[in-house]
Amino acid sequence: MDVFEAVAEPNRRHLISLLAERERTAGELVDSLPTLTQPAVSRHLRILRETGLVEVRPDGQRRIYALKPDGLQRIDDWITPYRRFWRDHLAALEKHLESE
Amino acid sequence: MDVFEAVAEPNRRHLISLLAERERTAGELVDSLPTLTQPAVSRHLRILRETGLVEVRPDGQRRIYALKPDGLQRIDDWITPYRRFWRDHLAALEKHLESE
DNA sequence: ACCTCACATAACATTGCGCTTATATACGTA
DNA sequence: TACGTATATAAGCGCAATGTTATGTGAGGT
Lengths: 100, 100
Description:
Two copies of one chain form a homodimer. By secondary structure, chain A is an alpha+beta fold. The first copy, chain A, has helices at residues 3-8, 10-21, 26-32, 38-50, 73-98; strands at residues 24-25, 54-59, 62-67. Chain A has a three-stranded antiparallel beta sheet with strand order 1-3-2. In chain A, helix 3 packs across helix 4 (38-50). Chains A and B meet through helix 1, helix 2 and helix 5 of A and helix 1, helix 2, helix 5 and helix 6 of B. Chain A binds a DNA duplex through residues 1, 5, 9, 11, 25-27, 30, 36-40, 42-46, 58, 60-63.
């Protein structure tokens, strides 16, 4: 699975947003997604690991998950060339509005 | 389907990159994806339409597809809060390198 | 040694996506 | 009107992703 498919899943985006605040243990993340069972969350975490979006560090019997700095950048790199599209569009829109 | 799933599909990302260069007819886009049949491309275009990533304009019996300026911005809006992660990381890395 | 807690993996069912072939729609032209 | 061209939709199939329950693994505690 690639990064795009990884972030296409709403629950995984939720996990990412939680890890953006701070590191959390697997158990905390499981509690944060009450609609899912523990194995389901564990699987999502595995996918986030394999796509390089998060990293794990053992702490006794816990596992601490953290967001990896360069994971989401791959998506940002892809979107960068297209950014001018809405920039130009917004610029033209503003210009049009101020000309009235 | 939402924007994230729409962009998760490689063929659809290819279509987006083609439309970023210039508008194209459905037929041109079909020719640009030789591994797919015409209905398959038509379906992808439908999804890109429904998610607001492209727009269509009829031209006789042809349909001209164009990239919509604000479609991909929804992804950019999502990624923006996380951007500081790799920026901070890069800054720290550079600082570390120049200190040697 | 035994049990419990935290987490991962296995096995399996269900669902949804993407593909194909076949068909419909709609415009253009003779 | 009749026919070809351009595109969309329908029907059906295979596969991969997501969920579940059941089980494995390994670290702590008594």
